[in-house]
Design a protein that fits this description.
Number of strands: 0
Shape: elongated
Structural class: mainly alpha
Helix content: over 70%
Distance between the termini: 70 Å
Oligomer: single chain
């Protein structure tokens, strides 16, 4: 009753504070790494995103958690929601690339492969120094018979992360081919 009397601004502040508290609790649960604590983290993040749907970091965290738990459809929806909130979100594009890559690996659907490449490529355009995006592209471009593009992606991965063994391996693999 008092929150209603204080006005909509106070109610919004309470919702934002509650959402932040739920988000922090979810991060703590997720850090524990157990199956049951992941479920608790998922519940907290679902509540946080309901309280503050405009906070894309909550949506991203829930999408990543869904992805790790194998809930690909829910993960895709969260990443798409973030993409609508921020069309230049490399994190949303990377998440969508991961979802479509896993779909391709499961069903061997060439359309899923194309979507994965499109999303990872978009993520590299937004964040060109992200070695992980470039590394994800290498095998998929190779699978699309784009050896030159796969080699270029491997080189970009190595430039972004010169000490990363996977980047060196990607360059060696594409050079060999």
């Amino acid at each position: 009753l008092l929150a209603g009397a204080a006005g909509p601004e106070a109610a919004r502040a309470d919702r934002a504070r509650d959402a932040e508290m739920l988000y922090r609790r979810a991060v703590d649960y997720e850090a524990r790494g157990a199956f049951e604590t992941r479920r608790l983290a998922m519940q907290c993040l679902e509540e946080a995103t309901a309280l503050a749907p405009e906070r894309f970091e909550y949506q991203l965290a829930l999408g990543r958690l869904y992805y790790r738990m194998g809930f690909l459809k829910q993960a895709r929806r969260r990443f798409e929601r973030v993409e609508k909130l921020d069309v230049r979100s490399a994190d949303a594009r990377f998440g969508l690339g991961q979802v479509w890559r896993r779909d391709w690996l499961k069903y061997l659907d060439r359309a899923s492969l194309g979507r994965a490449v499109d999303h990872f490529s978009a993520a590299t355009r937004v964040r060109p120094c992200d070695g992980e995006c470039w590394l994800q592209l290498v095998p998929m471009l190779y699978e699309q018979d784009s050896l030159a593009a796969a080699g270029a992606a491997a080189e970009r991965a190595l430039a972004a992360a010169p000490n990363r063994p996977e980047a060196r391996l990607a360059v060696a693999y594409t050079s060999f081919r």
